[in-house]
Amino acid sequence: MDIQAEVRLSTEELRDDIPFYTNTLKMRMDMIYPADDPTVAVFSGHGLRLRIEKNAPEGSGGIRILTDNPGEFAGGARQLTAPNGTNVEIAELNPPLVLPKVQHSFVVRRLADQAPWVIGRAGMHYRDLVPDRLGGAMIASHIRIPDGGPVPDMVHYHKVGFQLIFCVNGWVDVLYEDQGGLRRLNAGDCFIQPPEIRHRVCAASDDLQVIEIGVPADHVTEIDHEMALPTPHDRPDREWDGQRFVHNLAEGAAWGDFSLPGFECRDTTIATNTKDVAGVQVIRRGTGTPQWAQHDADIHFTFVMKGSMILQGEGRDPFALVAGDAFVIPPGMKTRYAEPSADIEFLEVTLPGAFETKVTDQ
Hints:
Strand content: 35-45%
Shape: elongated
Number of strands: 34
Strand order of the largest sheet: 8-31-28-33-26-25-24
Radius of gyration: 26 Å
Distance between the termini: 69 Å
Number of helices: 2
Structural class: mainly beta
């Protein structure tokens, strides 16, 4: 494709810039004029076209060059300054995913506290459920689309270690790479989006609400302009970084014993399909009396979907929780889910998927 756009940067003496852009940055000089006293030179390379112009009004600016081998580019320097003053950063084209160490904290986020909704990607509304993000280890978002219909989304993917989409209200239609045609997520259903699986949100009902969990908190979303969905092949057993796509349905799910007395749960198969990277369970009132307990999970997040309860924690004032509230319990902290209503139902997400819960005295 012909290049029909360029970035203009200013210089005071073009002759000093030519060897830097051609030799150090390995760019090609495509144009220079006037011949007797050059004031403009055009360089191209690394998918970029630069116009270096004497006394241009834009200033010297900055550029970022991405490469597979930054240690072998420009002598291994990561920060350079061109003679014209342009700041040059050399970065990895595909940097490895970094999972920050969890900074454990006890977090309670209540809907009644009116945390702000912000407009995010594709016009969706986001509410942050874990403001401190456990030191960057995870992000939990309450996402809604007030007005249903087509969603202005593009085929994209996320560079993550783990990502869950759990539908709390309404429905949403999504296309996924190698997973057949449209997948509809209804209330109580969930998706596991393995790292870098391509997908596109197509349509949603009025008042769609989902909980999205991402690890780490700051992760990149990239647009894939080449892939068309649905893909021609259905590959349900494909793995992405050892994880399989999961579409778990609430309808017809089996309920069984839960680790805490007084409750029962349904497993979403996510621990199995992520090889215990994470576990996701839906929990409701069962038989017995709720007891004090503690866990050893690195991340333990809960979102109340229905009903009410009192969250008691050692050394803390009790919290009265209702639908829309969320909390994080650090490992080793003693808590009790007291006075659960008959209709209580909450979502529990843990990393890793396999962890131990011990019933204990207060």
